[in-house]
Amino acid sequence: MAKMEINRFFKGSRAMPDPVKYWASWVLLAVAKSTLLDALSGRLGSKTRQTGEVLINGRKQQLAYGTSAYVMQEDILTWTLTVQEAVYYSAQLQLPNSMPKVEKKERAERTIREMGLQDSVNTRIGGWGSKGLSGGQKRRVSICMEMLTRPKLLFLDEPTSGLDSAASYYIMSRIVKLAQQDGMTVIASIHQPSSEVFDLFHNLCLLSLGRTVYFGSRLEANQDIELGIQEKKPAEEAIHVLVESYKSSNACKQIQREVAEICQRDRGVIGKKRSQASFFTQCLVLTERSFLNMYRDPGYYWLRLVIYIALGLGLGSVFYDVGPAYGSIHARGSMLMFVASFLTIMAIGGFPSFVEDMKVFERERLNGHYGAGAFVVGNTLSSVPYLLLISLIPSAIIYYLVGLHRGAERFIYFTLVLFVCMALVESLMMIVASLVPNFLMGLIAGAGIQGLMMLSGGFFRMPNDLPKVFWKYPLYYIAFHKYAYQGLYKNEFEGLSFDNMNQFEGPHTIHGDEILRDTLQVEMGYSKWVDLAILFGMVVLYRLLFLGMIKMVEKAKPVLRDLLNFSRRPTERTTVNPYSA
Predict the structure, then answer these.
(1) pTM of the full predicted structure?
(2) Looking at residues 187-206, what average pLDDT do you find?
(3) In angstroms, rounded to a whole number, what is the distance separating the alpha carbons of residues 51 and 572?
(4) What is the pLDDT of residue 8?
(5) SS3 401
(6) Which of 33, 231, 304, 339 is deepest in the core (most CB within 10 A)?
(7) Residue 78 — very low, low, confident or very high, per pLDDT cuts 50/70/90?
């Protein structure tokens, strides 16, 4: 991490009686980028070494939930939602249960109006080739979602990045109005602002190569910088002259005096931690939002449903009415293997949606909207109706076209196995998405894991023929395909008899139990319902692993980032308040 020298002191209005002293005070952080804002907002990784003092109103204190907000540079939004839906769902997640839903809706609508989005409330955000909001409108939606709690301190990371001058000025002027209205301090990092946007700021912190070139009033910045250097010099030398000039300037001395003065006063805490929605409410809201997102995503929902129906018709026509002949034994086994393996592996097609969900979760988690537990529960519950639908329709097509073992109980079991296998594949892909946030790499990794599990599931090589090392122990018992195959085999062959007319010796009929025991090498010591229970247990286990991976990645990311930075730089340090002892 680059060395940074910046004083965490931002001057408020002197006319404001409130002890917080954060009244519409704008500070421009030039060439600061995300790391500086992370340091100021307390979002640096726990493994990052930070020296100096972090003072708010002259005292060391944490920024409690609801008193500050952070708008990231990238607009990470659920693209299938409308503006009104996105902001209202965010309000339900952030605002406390004690606030009635009517008030939450009014807060969301008022915030939308304040950011000038009232004409786009029913417009979908858009993305993935779907036309929606413009870049400036998306930025305003991002700001809306963080303004719902009416924070005292708002951090903006490159709020005008990627926007034209008109959109940039519109956004910043709206924020100025809100800051004056709500008594809010805004701290923004910005790159090459237009003169109109620059004039909106009150104070300026100008950095170069992590060193403070100027910190003070925007109006005095040009004069001070011009006095610091009056002839053409190489860039590094010019920066050094500017830094030294500022250190010896009256502006720097005045800032140091004001810092010391504030530190001697007792201005109180910036605000107590505000309550937010309960865990149960967050789970319900996330379930509803996730289900709506799935339903509106043509690639995740409707296209996959069409593909599953087409595969069901394909299986039904290839294995149409297999009958009770001896040759149908192999046909039934092959068809059941295809259902449990290749039909369920299609669930990896939802991986791009999982990656987008993870990005939205990461942003909202960092801003304190909800935790990993609520996200996992909401995502799990929202997928149940969809998985049931895409399991039921292909199951009905396959079961009756092929002519499998008749009976309502057997059909329900067949459908449940297909449902739970799809849930397992989706759970596995969510674990991969938490580790590999890249579409191509994630799809390759997921398909590779599925391929290894299929090889050891007990169809391509019988269980007794599998190599003991790795393939039998432990992969055969870890792979869900083992329990899916054996459950479907038991469901199909128990109680059936097949013509054995092609055999010159032995009985004229062969019973299903013999096929299960001798041909397919199925473990007969327990019923098919135990296999199904194991599969459901594996779904729970995979979801818990997903939750654990999220928490582990949260702690591991700063470590990995520090290791990468360490390999690039001999020293790493973030210095806050260089004027302190």
Answers:
(1) 0.84
(2) 87
(3) 11
(4) 36
(5) helix
(6) 339
(7) very high
